[in-house]
Amino acid sequence: MEKEFIDLFELQTRMKVGVESLFPTQLWLKAEVSAIKARSGGHCYLELSQSDGNGLIAKVGAIIWASKYRILAPYFESVTGSPVQVGMVLLVSVQVNYSQLYGFSLIINDIDPEYSLGLKELERQRTIDRLRDEGLMDLQKGLSLPDLPYRFAVISAEDAAGYRDFIRHLEENPYGFKVHTMLYPALMQGADCPSSIVSALDAVLDDPEGYDAVLVLRGGGSRLDLSAFDDYGLAAAISQYPLPVLTAIGHDQDHHVADMVAYEHVKTPTALADFILSIYEDEDARISSYQMRLKMAFSMKIAAMESALQVLQTRILSSDPRKIVERGYALVLDDAGVVVKGVGGRSRGDKVSLMFPDGTLDCVVDSVKCS
Questions:
Q1: How many CB atoms lie under 10 A from the CB of residue 221?
Q2: C-alpha pair distances (Å), 173 with each of 167, 169, 179, 270
């Protein structure tokens, strides 16, 4: 007996009809991007996947045709601040497709960027709640910087513009203040960013000379790029770190969990350089204030002494015999040149002198009459 059979094309055709009839219209699908490749022709090929606690449980190939990709890609980036990339969880509008030649795939016709942002914000809030419940949010605030911190460990990407701006701003300060910095390179974006920074934090503690504080610098980026700084593991490591950790990892509109648990945070690397310099400026102003107060106190003491001297000089001048006779009086002196203040002790024949403004009369006492 001859066996009934169908050829491969017919099997694939039946599969196509069956699969596509199950999903005749577009549907919204949530999945993670595990691979992405934009071709020169304009089409974008992706691998979408789903995992659970045990690992990968589903995956499928997907494509965004060039005519759609030219619109969807810039729109997604304008809303989220980041292009579609591996590791993102997307909400996509798909059409189920089955090809006799290429098998099962999905045609992506739309992407909801707000979903990706909302998912990250939800994870961020859960991280904040967990840190708060574990009592980790304010541990760094209990630490203190030295009055004049000098040695700083800097965690950043070596080629990052923010790091270069920080160093230039610090070194070219108009006051000539000098501090010591040592770079500990780390990844500052992507899935491996949190673990890379934690490794750098561990390396800082291995330095035998020690540091006054640790500075984490990035200097901005897209909202999804910077979501690495909302990671629980990184935030927990910073909060429990034995040295003050200062962060400068975003633009004005960004405030990350790593900022919240840090000893101090500012918006940009140059602002962090200004923060450090302000410590030295305040100390310099305090010393200058002491010098000014000492100078003023010394000046006031000299002025008081000069005033007292002036009073004394006035008294001396007012007691000068010459001043007395200038007022129309005569000054009587005995033969020893001592001023005679009365007739007591005087007798007939004593010699005295009468001093006038224009000269002196030498006289002899003829008689003494007491009143």
A1: 21
A2: 10, 6, 11, 11
Per DSSP, which regions of the chain are E strands?
Answer: 27-38, 44-52, 55-64, 89-99, 103-111, 151-156, 180-185, 213-217, 245-248, 264-265, 331-334, 351-356, 359-364
Q: Convert 256-269 to b/e letters by CB count within 10 Å (16 or more is b).
A: bbbbbbbbbbbbbb
Which residue in this structure is represented by tokens 């605030």? 141
Closest by CA to 248, choosing from 233, 232, 235, 264, is: 264
Strands 264-265 and 245-248: parallel
> What secondary structure, in 3-state letters, does 282-304 show?
HHHHHHHHHHHHHHHHHHHHHHH
Tens-digit pLDDT profile for residues 251-304: 655 678 999 999 999 999 999 999 999 999 988 778 776 666 686 767 677 777
pLDDT digits 0-9 by tens, 75-134: 998 887 778 988 889 999 999 999 999 999 999 999 999 898 888 888 888 999 999 999
Q: What pairs with residue 353 in β-bridges?
A: 333, 362
Contact of 41 with 16, CB cutoff 8 Å: no
Q: What is the mean pLDDT of residues 307-326?
A: 71
Residues composing the chain? 371
Q: What pLDDT score does 253 carry?
A: 57
Q: Is pLDDT at 171 greater than 60 in this prediction?
A: yes
Query: Are the CB atoms for 88 and 33 separated by under 8 Å?
Result: yes
Check whether 225 has a pLDDT greater than 80.
no
The closest of 104, 107, 85, 84 to 94, measured between CA atoms, is: 107
Residues 6+ apart with CB under 8 A from 149: 179, 212, 213, 276, 279
Instruction: With H, G, I as helix, E, B as strand and everything else as coil, classify residue 162.
Output: helix
Give the end-to-end CA distance of the chain in Å, rounded to a whole number: 179
Type of residue numbered 308: A
State the Cα–Cα distance between residues 148 and 171, nearest whole angstrom. Answer: 16
